[in-house]
Write a structure and sequence with these properties.
By secondary structure, this protein is α/β, with parallel strands linked by helices. Helix content is about 35%, strand content about 20%. It has an 11-stranded mixed β-sheet, with helices on both faces. The chain has a 6-stranded mixed β-sheet with strand order 33-34-38-35-36-37, sandwiched between helices. The protein has a 5-stranded antiparallel β-sheet with strand order 19-14-13-20-21. It is elongated and about 105 Å long.
């Protein structure tokens, strides 16, 4: 039996594809390496169950290619992939991408396929496995039931037709779309430029307008006061008054809820007191008060006004069947539901017909039952109102509306105060002014549905979503904020903070995600490792932000994909061995492929910034379709020279300056020793980070002087850059706090420390539990060659390790690196280890504290400084001395 081991959705660009995909991990068990050609009748039996699989081209590139692959022989994981795609496609979700990959475990495969609705995709994948298991066991499989359930899940989570049409129009224009809930609340655009929609309620919609439209009596009064033709009516609370007023108005009449909407509880063409009684009770189910008004004869029309302009009109026809003198009403419904233009919910032009309480009411009025046979040509209405969701249909009449009626509709939208209004009219026609032919306005709707205009049963489809998006984002207006995404093995947070500092100086309101937390305008709003897609979403949804600088770590890309659609700039700093052996990433080439997702996912006209001194970064350039800026410590780097010769831009470290170069110019940006983050030029890795920050900000329009000011005014202090080369002096001891946690970072860190003079050096260090043993031993072995004494501790989160296991590995590395055993102290608790480090350090020493809990360590070191150095003992500059 094939088993599903895990299913996850990658919601952004990812390791496998630039679109969202589902990754389903399966275990083929005893069927591993069993080809379909070896399973008797597999291709024919599967094709009999799902005939449309014959349309799949597969790698052969022609219809029927997949079936041919099955006959020739392919693995069952590949078959499951195609089934998962086809189940969704049959359920009206147009997906097509898929691939199946083996893993390092025997018989375990990753089946990857695209999806529209996450929950429907999960179900389709699991049912694909169930289908194959059924075939292998010689059992029946219910394809029809599977498709029906997928459709049901789709309808529960998929956007409604109105919201979907606006979203599609926005996406056509390149406007970012973020879904804010499981229903129809959607954000268009990002940050401070965002607009929100929920169906056709928008950020521009007036609450007073919505409340007014929902109050039928008030709407009617306002329209009457404005001279708009409306049917005469009254409001009642009791059945007695309803019948009395209906007789006073004169039958036929209409009864509807006082504050209803979308036709719920409405009964039209009431002809008697008995019918009035049933209609009254139906309306009372939706409201405490009931409107009784004169019934107007004619057609039911919907006129749509967007942003004060008449946009479209449709004639609406309630759900009905046409008799043929042979079939019963039930049979006529079944026949009509086979119409390919009808579907479940909103999946097609028209919705399938259903039998409702209103249908039973209409049957009783006619003296019919569902088994009655209407005469040939007789039209029997199943509903009283023409809602598309109950099976009604629409005929576009936009080009057949009299100018006076268009003007009237535009007035009504203004009078009620709606940016988008659906105006319901009963009239013989819209070709003439309705007031002259006995027509009238019966209702004004906030949040009118667009489906009848987008997909009418007859007539011209109207793209009514276009004027809505035009209204929300007028020509020339912004929709998306600046996004700069940074990835790499080391230096991400420093580079992120440098970029943010420069952009803030440029006048931007910056949102920033880092391994320290989320910052909005330099305020920490969430603490912890916030370098994944969830954190990016928080920034992009925030209405205060006009520039997002996003640290984008390996883990988040593998877990959920990118948290943004496209960036203006994608930066890859370096690719060094780290986290190898986790989540299927076993080699540096695997890791480079993950980080390349950031390099490749930039918007049209955007820029990718790459490290020309890193071979893995250089290889990424081949797949980057937009502009590239390389940076390098060596102006003579062949990659740099070739890039300049090809008339592209580079940033290099040249004669002590970070310098911008291309084929036309050479512009020094900032002197390295003037940049505090480089520690007088000793922190070479921060020179690289500064070059990347300069390149990224230059790519989004920062001027040279703005970049220079940002670089020279940024300090590696605990406040501006917590855990990155923070130096706190306590009684002559330089306490250096850093987050380095992999061999490459340790190498850079140790090179810096050794450049800080021939001084006694003490290190307090731990190891991260999810690193390979050899990596843990390597970092401690390197530390042994640079430090005189070491204190090792264990983080509280062992990440799957046993207590003491990490201490053993660290001690083993220190000893193999040559540090004497008497110079190594094991202290499990971090705070105790820091205290011990300070107790054995002397004036002039360097004490290095390597920690993943940066803020806790900084706070503790400052508390010790306060204890040891009361204010009276601190030598203040002359400007602070008492003049006396």
């Amino acid at each position: 039996m094939i088993k599903v081991l895990d299913v996850k959705a990658l919601k952004g660009a990812n390791f496998y594809h630039y679109r969202p995909v589902i990754v389903m991990t399966i275990d083929l068990g005893k069927h591993d390496e069993v080809m379909t050609s070896e399973i008797s009748g597999m291709a024919d039996r599967l094709l009999a169950l799902v005939p449309s699989l014959d349309d799949h081209r597969c790698s052969l590139g022609v219809p029927g290619g997949f079936v041919q692959r099955m006959r020739e022989g392919t693995l069952l994981g590949h078959v499951i992939e195609h089934l998962a795609i086809e189940f969704q496609y049959i359920a009206y979700m147009d997906v097509g991408f898929g691939k199946t990959l083996d893993t390092e475990k025997q018989g375990v495969y990753e089946v990857i396929f695209s999806y529209w609705v996450e929950e429907a995709g999960f179900f389709a994948g699991k049912q694909a496995v169930a289908c194959i298991n059924s075939l292998l066991a010689g059992k029946e499989f219910d394809v029809e039931g599977t498709i029906a359930e997928i459709k049901s899940i789709r309808d529960s989570y998929h956007l409604g037709p109105s919201t979907a049409s606006i979203v599609e129009e926005a996406e056509r224009r390149g406007i970012t779309v973020l879904r804010l809930d499981d229903y129809n609340l959607v954000q268009l655009g990002e940050g401070k430029y965002q607009k929100r929609i929920q169906a056709t309620i928008t950020s521009n919609t007036s609450m007073i307008g919505v409340e007014t439209a929902g109050n039928k009596r008030l709407t009617k009064q306002m329209l009457e006061d404005a001279g708009i033709p409306t049917p005469k009516g009254v409001i009642v609370r009791s059945l007695k008054h309803a019948i009395e007023d209906a007789n006073w108005l004169g039958y036929p009449v209409v009864a509807k809820p006082y504050d209803g909407h979308h036709g719920k509880g409405v009964t039209t063409n009431i002809m008697s007191d008995e019918e009035m009684e049933a209609a009254f009770h139906r309306a009372k189910e939706s409201s405490t008060q009931v409107i009784v008004e004169k019934y107007l004869t004619g057609n039911d029309y919907r006129m749509l006004v967007i942003n004060g302009k008449f946009t479209a009109a449709a004639r609406r026809v309630p759900a009905s069947v046409i008799g043929d003198g042979t079939h019963t009403i039930t049979e006529l419904i079944e026949i009509e539901n086979k119409n390919p233009r009808r579907g479940y919910g909103h999946e097609n032009v028209m919705t399938r017909l259903k039998i409702s309480s209103v249908t039973n009411h209409l049957l009783a009025m006619k003296g019919y039952t569902l088994e009655s046979v209407p005469a040939d040509g007789e039209q029997f209405f199943l509903e009283l109102t023409a809602n598309l969701s109950t099976g009604g249909s629409a005929v576009d009449v936009t080009n057949r509306v009299h100018t006076s009626n268009k003007f009237m509709a535009e007035r009504i939208a203004k009078i009620i105060g709606l940016d988008i209004a659906g105006i319901d009219v009963i009239s013989p026609t819209l070709r003439q002014p309705i007031g002259k032919i006995g027509g009238g306005v019966i209702e004004v709707n906030a949040a009118p549905g667009l489906r009848m205009h987008i997909s009418p049963a007859e007539g011209t489809p109207r793209n009514v979503a276009k004027p809505i998006v035009d209204m929300l984002f007028p020509k020339g207006s912004e929709s998306d904020i600046i996004i700069i995404a940074v990835t790499g093995t080391n230096g991400k947070t420093t580079t992120i903070r440098l970029i943010s500092h420069i952009m803030k100086g440029k006048g931007h309101s910056v949102g920033m995600t880092t391994t320290d937390g989320i910052y909005l305008r330099d305020r920490l709003i969430a603490e912890g490792d916030m370098s994944g897609p969830y954190s990016a979403g928080i920034v992009l949804r925030d209405p205060m932000v006009d520039c997002a600088v996003l640290e984008t770590a390996r883990g988040g890309i593998l877990r959920s994909g990118l948290g943004y659609s496209v960036a203006d700039v994608g930066v890859v700093l370096n690719v060094q061995p780290d986290h190898l052996g986790l989540k299927g990433i076993n080699t540096i080439q695997d890791l480079a492929k993950v980080k390349a997702v950031v390099a490749e996912t930039v918007r049209r006209g955007g820029t990718t910034v790459l490290n020309a001194d890193d071979p893995q970064c250089v290889e990424m350039a081949e797949h980057c379709r937009e502009n590239i800026i390389f940076f390098s410590l060596r102006p003579s780097n062949p990659v740099i020279r070739a890039h300049i010769e090809n008339e592209h831009t580079v940033v290099v470290y040249d004669q002590g300056y970070i310098t911008l170069m291309n084929h036309e110019m050479l512009t020094p940006i900032a002197k390295v020793i003037e940049m505090p983050v480089t520690m007088d030029g000793r922190a070479v890795f921060n020179i690289q980070n500064a070059m990347a920050a300069a390149a990224a900000t230059y790519a989004v329009g920062a001027k040279i002087e703005e970049i220079r000011q940002g670089l020279i005014s940024f300090f590696p202090s605990p406040a501006q850059m917590p855990g990155r080369m923070n130096i706190i002096n306590i009684e002559g001891i330089d306490v250096l706090i850093d987050y380095a946690h992999n061999p490459s970072a340790y190498k850079n860190f140790i090179e810096l420390v050794t450049r800080m003079g021939d001084r006694r050096r003490v290190i307090v260090l731990d190891a991260v539990g999810d690193r390979r043993n050899e990596d843990i031993e390597e970092i401690s072995r390197m530390a042994a060659g640079a430090f005189n004494e070491a204190i090792i501790y264990e983080d509280k989160d062992l990440r799957g390790r046993e207590p003491g296991e990490l201490l053993d590995l660290l001690e083993k590395g220190l000893l193999s690196g040559g540090l004497p055993v008497e110079k190594i102290q094991r202290i499990p608790d971090e705070t105790d280890a820091i205290n011990k480090g300070l107790s054995i350090s002397q004036r002039g020493d360097i004490l290095c504290i390597m920690t993943g809990r940066v803020r806790t360590a900084i706070k503790h070191v400052y508390s010790i400084k306060e204890q040891r150095e009361p204010l009276a003992q601190i030598e203040l500059p002359d400007v602070y001395q008492d003049e006396s």
